[in-house]
Write a structure and sequence with these properties.
alpha/beta; Rossmann fold; six-stranded mixed sheet; globular; binds magnesium ion; about 250 residues; binds adenosine-5'-diphosphate; 8 helices
Length: about 250
């Protein structure tokens, strides 16, 4: 592990079981992300991207294997400790913005700061963060009064208001038109620089993936060296066989 490694995933396997059967989802995942690095993660629907992101972000646990952040093993932390760690160190945004509809933009962004900080301070900091994402004029609007691009920017502000070390983004542009997507990418570059942020961005969109310093390819629960679309040589066919339809329930 290098000194500036911020996240380290070591031998992660994930399986899910019901009464009858065990479904393997991720196989022997090993990867590291350095401070300030932007890593793109691409792969077909059902390949395990969201599962991997959830495990790395401490919202899900590996079946075996370990996840370290700042050298601390988060995969074995107790729930309370992990929740505090997540609150301080990890930001996460999703394709659906998951804003609280009854709260204004300002209140949504202040929510992660209500834990342990006084309310005035939380609202001031939230206003500052909304200014950084270009939404000073939208503080008192509720989510339904905002465009998709604006809602995603509120979600980013909420994710970054605690100044986490890393932002995980799961298909962040999936619900946006191309112009809003482009603006969002530019904003992520600016915020990354300003906060010396590391990013891992899951995407289907090659234009979005190209913003990363590095692109990881997940296929059938395994990290592979090259994208499935160029894997036509016989030697790669086995590793890149598509997941049986019966095991893919179409989740994105
Ligand atoms: N909670 C769950 N219950 C059952 N199957 C799941 C669950 N979560 C994920 N899966 C399965 O795990 C595989 C990977 O899913 P996911 O991580 O959502 O992939 P992706 O984000 O790449 O589309 C899929 O086959 C999906 O059906
Ligand atoms: Mg997904």
């Amino acid at each position: 592990m290098q000194n500036n490694t911020i996240v380290h995933v070591q031998g992660v396997h994930k399986e899910l079981s019901n009464d009858e059967k065990t479904f393997p989802i991720l196989h022997n995942i090993n990867l590291s992300i350095r401070q300030g690095e932007w890593v793109s993660l691409v792969g077909p629907s059902g390949s395990g991207k969201t599962t991997l992101l959830g495990i790395m972000a401490g919202i899900d646990r590996p079946t075996t294997g370990k996840v370290f952040m700042h050298g601390q093993e988060i995969s074995s932390m107790r729930e309370g400790q992990l929740a505090r760690f997540r609150n301080q160190q990890i930001g996460i945004i999703f394709q659906s913005f998951f804003l609280i509809s009854s709260l204004t933009a300002l209140e949504n962004v202040a929510v992660p700061l209500f834990i342990g900080k006084n309310k005035r301070h939380a609202l001031d900091k939230a206003a500052d963060m909304l200014a950084q994402v270009g939404l000073s004029h939208r503080l008192n609007n509720r989510p339904h009064q905002l465009s998709g691009g604006e809602q995603q920017r509120v979600a980013i502000a909420r994710a970054l208001v605690t100044e986490p070390a890393i932002l995980y983004a799961d298909e962040p542009t999936g619900n946006l038109d191309s112009s809003s997507s482009q603006q969002l990418m530019m904003l992520l570059h600016t915020l990354r620089k300003r906060q010396n942020l590391s990013l891992m961005v899951v995407t289907h969109d090659n234009n979005v993936a190209a913003h990363g310093d590095r692109v990881l390819h997940l296929y059938d629960g395994m990290l592979v060296d090259r994208p499935a679309s160029v894997a036509s040589s016989p030697s790669t066919t086995t590793a890149l066989a598509p997941m049986p339809k019966s095991e893919a329930n179409g989740r994105q």
